[in-house]
Amino acid sequence: MDFQLVLDQINTELRPLMGQGGQVARYIPALARVSPLQFGIALRTCEGETAQAGDSAVPFSIQSMSKVFSLTLAIKALDEALWDRIGREPSGSPFNSLVQLESERGIPRNPFINAGAIAVADRLVSQADALPELLRLLSGLCGEAVQVDAEVAQSEADTGFRNTALANFMKAFGTLDNDVAEVLAVYFHQCAIHMSCEQVACAAGYLCRDGRHPLAGPDVISATQTRRINALMLTCGTYDAAGEFAFRIGLPSKSGVGGGIVAVVPDRLTLCVWSPALDATGNSFLGRQALELFVAKTGLSVF
Amino acid sequence: MDFQLVLDQINTELRPLMGQGGQVARYIPALARVSPLQFGIALRTCEGETAQAGDSAVPFSIQSMSKVFSLTLAIKALDEALWDRIGREPSGSPFNSLVQLESERGIPRNPFINAGAIAVADRLVSQADALPELLRLLSGLCGEAVQVDAEVAQSEADTGFRNTALANFMKAFGTLDNDVAEVLAVYFHQCAIHMSCEQVACAAGYLCRDGRHPLAGPDVISATQTRRINALMLTCGTYDAAGEFAFRIGLPSKSGVGGGIVAVVPDRLTLCVWSPALDATGNSFLGRQALELFVAKTGLSVF
Amino acid sequence: MDFQLVLDQINTELRPLMGQGGQVARYIPALARVSPLQFGIALRTCEGETAQAGDSAVPFSIQSMSKVFSLTLAIKALDEALWDRIGREPSGSPFNSLVQLESERGIPRNPFINAGAIAVADRLVSQADALPELLRLLSGLCGEAVQVDAEVAQSEADTGFRNTALANFMKAFGTLDNDVAEVLAVYFHQCAIHMSCEQVACAAGYLCRDGRHPLAGPDVISATQTRRINALMLTCGTYDAAGEFAFRIGLPSKSGVGGGIVAVVPDRLTLCVWSPALDATGNSFLGRQALELFVAKTGLSVF
Amino acid sequence: MDFQLVLDQINTELRPLMGQGGQVARYIPALARVSPLQFGIALRTCEGETAQAGDSAVPFSIQSMSKVFSLTLAIKALDEALWDRIGREPSGSPFNSLVQLESERGIPRNPFINAGAIAVADRLVSQADALPELLRLLSGLCGEAVQVDAEVAQSEADTGFRNTALANFMKAFGTLDNDVAEVLAVYFHQCAIHMSCEQVACAAGYLCRDGRHPLAGPDVISATQTRRINALMLTCGTYDAAGEFAFRIGLPSKSGVGGGIVAVVPDRLTLCVWSPALDATGNSFLGRQALELFVAKTGLSVF
Q1: Is the pLDDT at C95 greater than 60, yes or no?
Q2: Which of A9, A85, C203, C265 is the most exposed place for a label (fewest CB within 10 A)?
Q3: Is the pLDDT of residue B92 over 80?
Q4: Where does the chain bind substrate (chains A, B, C, D) (predicted)?
Q5: Mutation for C interface: B91, B113, B161, most C CBs within 10 A
Q6: CB-based contact D110:D91 (threshold 8 Å)
Q7: Do the chains contact at D244 and C110, CB–CB below 8 Å?
Q8: What is the C-alpha separation between D266 and D301, in angstroms, rounded?
Q9: Is D102 within 8 Å of chain A by CB?
Q10: Which of C152, C187, C255, C262 is catalytic?
């Protein structure tokens, strides 16, 4: 299949729609001033073939897409033991809801809602240098130095009252072992990591190759662990729209409020699309359409 | 792959566990007196190859597995218009919960929770002979006459206070067009359909062949519609354990409290397993293990 | 205190506001066609002095105000045993909510939300002729024949899907002993009782005299039982606005969607006000203002 | 009425039950080590008559009883404007629940649940020296220097993860104007105020005298404001047991997890009872019984 042609077609079809729908995230200034007139897409096959179109080399704030990589580190370190404190079910509630957390006594529903990702961060803090480890993992996976945008990280911390509430609430229930401020520092920094579509498509490569490193490197995680992360992405990766994504797109995906979405076609390729304007569910307005087009044009879907 | 060998191994491994865990559904006498000492499994590939083991020819009450077929009829008749009154997101709540229905103003979260299936039944009642149509569909799909167990249907009606509550609640919100009693009659009867593993594995065949009839017959639904039903089964098909099923098994599945589970490997095969004792999530205790074993032995999974 | 003067002043102040705010209940035709241009008020002291103004002799549909009298019958028959199946706490949710009922396993929060009143009706059905007993009680209390408006009762039944849902839901939990249809028949008929402000002010008289009959008659209930009904009216009697009523008015009160409100000044008097247009909380728009004025002018309040 | 005799009788009846039921609050060491073998009761009439029995002069941690006094300061300063950010309805949920706060977008249900009291503290922080003002008010009201137990205040802060969650959550919704840490410091310190039954009974005196100072001093608040605080105490003052308190006791009351309860008989007297062991609803096990006995013996109740 000529993937470069497919991505070019998608770029041609969707570029005219930039700025026509959705809204850039406004909760911190550093995100609010990103231009919505950007659209990038990149993929990398299991065999290492790449394709890209549009603003695919422009770095953006990966935000919640980072949850896939922090989860990978935690599963690598703890495997099944991780699930003592985090569930694996879709939440049926907004990504930052406290209701579910209360009725289920401090155990977050899954690692991709904010509470769950904070609980994952707590597990990483217990291991060692959580943030440096995560940056080391990402840099190795895409073969380039990956960094945190310090201004974004600071803004996340300054305005993160709801995440601070979630973390304290879990601390009250005993879900977190470590100091709340230390855990949140990791979480706020991981959300502020900057990467381009090309970098993400490469870094996520282990998810379409049963856990094997996309470049030269040791296996990241096992085949079973990989399959499980993909399952979690499909059922819980796109906030309240996970059912809708499965229904219309049918690929394990994880989105972020920076406007990026990473998707996996098991045994075939990983794909990253980015456009900053978000729809009402917090997913990239054009990113979602790009994935629908990709599936329609290629027939690639897990179903 | 020698599927007959795989099913024989699974049957050999799991038969000794019959009666060792789980509990037969007790809410109606006709289900409560079914012996837990039964285990059957059957599959049918896209090419028509079959394999079976254990009590694969014994008819059982398909219960909520019927929701896949009633949904198929409704999608065939209404396509996208069906989704005006039914959501497509995992529920995050027990299958017969009213809470979600209240907060979302009478729109059930998905067609596989009870409220959603009742809403689907209402749509079928608006079309025509809902129940005869469904039986006709099933009989055609498996090539044998499929019937309702009248005693089970009557028991469902006599004890279905919660389903009656759900239906009246949706009627109050305007989700149902037809008379509550008439809609519930269809729902209670579809739950009381009796089929064997072999029949179900054959009948569900269109789900692994892009909607094409498993025997000689016209296309059941389109490829896109088929893919969407598979997506809904994966995200919502096994009650509160959908995330867990995706995580451990990774196949679109739909279970029933009669102890059956139907699963799909897209483009490969459909599979039905049955054992009456249920685990705490309402899914067949051995059926779940059988699916895990099947995936472990064959490597077949959508992820 | 010259109560006649007070009621005349209130009538003079509020009559010009008739039709200026609120909306007549629209869920059944018989209520929807009642003119909002009506306002009546009547009181009766412990000593038997009466005062009235405006449309105080016009009968109206007492609706949920009937819950006070059915509760009285149930307490008379069962005393403490009544509380095995009904709570005594404010609900914190709308009067016809199912959420609370689900989380508290079918036990309604208090006897004044719909679910609670249906549970009270079930207790009365277990005793004997529930509806005739209730009409006998009311007729004796006000010294005139009290009747049900058959058209209203039929409309309640025809449109009562939410109440039917509540009743079936409680039946599923075992809160109701009797046939759902029979219990609902009592409930729908009690809501359709017609009385005037003067009749209600007299009939409720036992609530300000420690349970003693307002006319010639045996004690209705004990002093302790009376105090408890007053407490329930104060904490739970006016739907979601109970806190607001306590805060602004400070009298045990029970309202109905027919536009009536009955209020008690313990050891002094009972009061009934009626005006059909309702505010957003389902309480009479002018009735509420009338009670505020009454308290302001007389200084009578339990606090 | 011989109030001294009544209190002596209550003390005689209940002292033998000390240590027989309930549990001392365990969430901070300073409270956990308080002996449950203590019981005190004191009252003060509108005319200044006092009566006391048992450990009525022993200071204890007033905890949530402080919410009455901080609310008084806030109402004095802001009157109606206070209610822009705080509701006045019973919560129907546990005192430290986040669920209600989420569904009602950060507006706490009433000033006596923790979230509401934290919102009140925020209003006081906006005024000026919140904590010194509160201590000044209390010292003036009881004629003796009132102080904070520094160890208790520190422990509250060290373990107050849930309150920190509530405060951050409200900050996220814009309910709090001030720095979260500063608001919580006031809240944790007010909970750590130590007073005896005799001091509290005197300090609360304005609540039974239409807002007039119990000793020599200017009016504390207006008669209407006083009546409203009493209404809030009755409907919301005793956590999840407010309905039960109204039903069995019928007096405006506010309890604290230190084991104290303050109650008001409007126009007659204020009463404080203390015994450290709590029942399952977080109210003093013997305190509740003492209030029931007091009402039974004196017939004093608002209903």
Answers
A1: no
A2: A9
A3: no
A4: 64, 114, 156, 163, 187, 239, 257
A5: B161
A6: yes
A7: no
A8: 9
A9: yes
A10: C187
Domain that holds residue B33: 3-298
D97, D104, D162, D177: best mutation site toward chain A, by most A Cβ within 10 Å? Answer: D162
Q: Residue B76 domain-assigned?
A: yes
Sign of CA pseudo-dihedral A11, A14, A17, A18: negative
Positions of A annotated as catalytic residues are: 64, 67, 187, 239, 257
Task: Give the residue from C69, C75, C63, C67 showing the smallest Cα distance to C31.
Answer: C63
Asked whether the beta carbons of residue D247 and residue C231 sit closer than 8 angstroms, the reply is yes
- Measured in angstroms, the CA of D240 and the nearest CA of chain A are apart by 17
Can you say whether the dihedral through the CA atoms of D122, D123, D126, D129 is positive or negative?
A: negative
Torsion region of A159: left, alpha or beta (phi above 0 gives left; psi -120 to 50 gives alpha): alpha
The total number of structural domains in chain B stands at 1
- C residues 258-287 lying closer than 8 A (beta carbon) to B: none
Q: Kindly compute the dihedral angle of the four CA atoms of residues B184, B186, B190, B194, in this order, to the nearest 10 degrees.
A: 110
Three-state DSSP class for residue C129: coil
Does the annotation count C257 as an active-site position? Answer: yes
Arithmetic mean of pLDDT, B71-99: 85
Q: How far apart are CA C294 and CA C291, in angstroms?
A: 5
A90, B243: Cβ pair inside 8 Å? yes
- Looking at residue B82, what is its pLDDT? 96
Distances (CA, A) of A26 to A22, A132, A164, B246: 12, 28, 19, 34
pLDDT along chain A (303 residues), means of 10: 97 96 92 96 97 98 98 96 92 66 86 96 94 97 96 93 95 96 98 98 98 96 96 93 94 98 98 97 96 96 95
Residue D303 in any domain: the answer is no
Answer whether C242 sits within 8 Å of D89, measured CB to CB: yes
Query: Cα torsion for D236, D238, D241, D247, to the nearest 10°?
Result: -80
Q: What is the pLDDT of residue A91?
A: 76
Residue C303 domain-assigned (yes or no)? no
- Comparing CB atoms, the residue among D232, D266, D303 nearest residue C230 is D303
First to last CA, chain A: 19
B187 is a catalytic site residue = yes
Q: Which two tokens stand for residue D243?
A: 């309905």
- Kindly give the interhelix angle for D114-127 and D130-142, rounded to the nearest 10 degrees: 100
Question: Which positions in chain B touch A232 (Cβ < 8 Å)?
Answer: 243, 246-247
B255: which strand partners? B261
Binding-site annotation, residues of A: 64, 114, 156, 163, 187, 239, 257
∠D173-A109-B278 over CA atoms, to 5°? 145
- Alpha-helix runs per DSSP H in A174-284: 180-191, 197-203, 223-236, 242-248
What are residue C272's DSSP bridge partners?
A: C42, C262
| Strand pairing class (D277-278; D23-24) | antiparallel
Q: Are C168 and B162 in contact (CB < 8 Å)? A: yes
Q: What is the pTM of this model?
A: 0.92
Is D162 an interface residue toward A (CB < 8 Å)? yes
pLDDT, tens digit (0-9, with 9 covering 90-100), for A130-183: 999 999 999 999 999 999 999 999 999 999 999 999 999 999 999 999 999 999
Token readout for B88 is 């497509």
3-state percent helix, strand, coil for chain A, nearest multiple of 5 = 50, 15, 35
Q: For chain B, what is the radius of gyration of the CA atoms?
A: 18
B182: CATH: 3.40.710.10
Do the Cβ atoms of D87 and C234 come within 8 Å?
Answer: no
Instruction: Evaluate if residue D73 carries a pLDDT over 60.
Output: yes
Between strands D50-54 and C147-148, the pairing is unpaired
In a domain, C168, yes or no: yes
Residue C98 has pLDDT above 90, yes or no: no
Confidence check: pLDDT of D96 > 80:
no
Cβ of residue A243 closer than 8 Å to a chain B Cβ: yes
Annotation says B64 is catalytic? yes
